[in-house]
Design a protein that fits this description.
Layout lengths: L1 H4 L4 H10 L1 H5 L6 H32 L6 E3 L5 H6 L3 E6 L5 E10 L2 E5 L2 E5 L11 E6 L4 E6 L5 E3 L2 E5 L3 E5 L1
Parallel strand pairs: 3-6
Antiparallel strand pairs: 1-2, 2-3, 4-5, 5-9, 6-7, 7-10, 8-9
Amino acid sequence: MLDKINCKSKLDLFNTINNESRNLFLSGGLYFNTVLGKLQITESSGIRNEEYGVKILTNILREKGIASKVYRTETDCRDDLLHGIDLYFNFKNSQGVDKKATCQVKPLKSYSEEGDTFKVVSSGKLQPYNVNYLMFVDTAAKRALLFKNSDMVRYQDKTVYIPISQLLLVKD
């Protein structure tokens, strides 16, 4: 898409979005069907990742003897868009009080151990959200990583650095 509209910098992109907004975002616009198609592919991929994440998290809870159903938030709902919550489940804490745990699911491209840190690369820009767990999945390879989220997690564009101490699952 960027090649079609000849953007070479962020400024070019912002100017193009401003100048070509009708062609990009209105039905019948020159680029509308292309933009819509890309968004549908991205959304479909995200849903597949989240559904795979539900299976992984459900198995983990079952293995730990926690009787809870894992739910996927509705795509594009407030929790998803503003809070980064893709999955959640309810459980009773040690005092018997009902609690809600949240999880963000992102695509997994690669990962490596670097000392006491996991370096995880995703296919999209990552940002911190106030969720309990971070999951990275590759549905084609049936791989997943699950981490407890904390303020020790560092984000850098498409890469996240997570202390190994936060690792809960590696499924290769």
